[in-house]
Write a structure and sequence with these properties.
Shape: globular
Number of helices: 8
Distance between the termini: 56 Å
Helix content: over 70%
Strand content: under 5%
Number of strands: 0
Length: about 180
C-alpha cells in the first residue's frame, strides 16, 4: 500500500510539473499580442485547454503507461480551475458548478479538436474560431494558431515518451508563427 501511495505521489509531482509547463506556454505573450487572443480569464482558459489537449493527446498515444500521469494532469487542471475561480471572487456555492462547466468544456473541446485534426482541411481552423468566439475561421490569426497547434502536435509526437511522461518535453516557439504584428 505504501508503494502505491508513493507512486501516486510521484505521478502527482510529474503532473504538477507538466501542468506548470502547459500554463507557462499558454501564457506566452505572443498568443495575446500577435494572435489577438483576449488576455482575459476566458482567453487564458482557451489557451490552457489547447495546450492541455496537446499534451494529453501525446500521453494518450502511450497507452497504459501514460494514463496515470494523464489522470493526475486532468486533476491538476480541475484544481487550477477551482483556485482560479476562487481568486476571481466566485462564491463558494458557485465554484463547484463553474468548475464542472470548465471541465465539461475541456472535454468537449478536446473531442472537437481531435475530430477536427482527424478530418484535416480547415476543420481545425473552424473549431478554433468557434471556441475563440469572434475570429473568422479564414482570418490569418486563426490560421496561424492552427499552424501552431499542428506544429506542437508534431513536436510532441517526435519527443520520447519518457520525456513527455517525465515532464521534460518542450513546445515549439510560438514567436515563430508566420503572422505579422497586428
Amino acid at each position: 500500500m505504501l508503494r502505491s501511495l508513493k507512486r501516486r505521489a510521484e505521478f502527482q509531482r510529474k503532473a504538477g510539473e507538466i501542468y506548470g509547463a502547459i500554463v507557462t506556454q499558454a501564457r506566452q505573450p505572443v498568443f495575446y499580442a500577435r494572435l489577438g487572443i483576449p488576455d482575459t480569464p476566458t482567453g487564458r482558459y482557451e489557451m490552457v485547454v489547447i495546450h492541455l489537449f496537446l499534451v494529453l493527446e501525446r500521453l494518450r498515444g502511450e497507452g497504459a503507461s501514460g494514463e496515470p500521469v494523464a489522470q493526475e494532469l486532468v486533476d491538476a487542471f480541475v484544481a487550477d480551475m477551482d483556485d482560479s475561480l476562487r481568486e476571481l471572487g466566485t462564491g463558494d456555492i458557485g465554484v463547484p458548478r463553474r468548475v464542472k462547466r470548465a471541465a465539461a468544456g475541456f472535454y468537449q473541446r478536446s473531442k472537437d479538436y481531435r475530430e477536427a485534426i482527424g478530418a484535416g482541411g480547415r476543420a481545425l481552423e473552424l473549431a478554433l474560431a468557434r471556441y475563440l468566439r469572434g475570429p473568422d475561421p479564414g482570418e490569418p490569426r486563426i490560421a496561424a494558431l492552427a499552424e501552431y497547434v499542428r506544429a506542437a502536435m508534431a513536436s510532441l509526437a517526435g519527443q520520447q515518451a519518457v520525456e513527455v511522461i517525465g515532464g521534460g518535453f518542450s513546445f515549439p516557439d510560438p514567436s515563430a508563427l508566420a503572422m505579422a504584428e497586428p
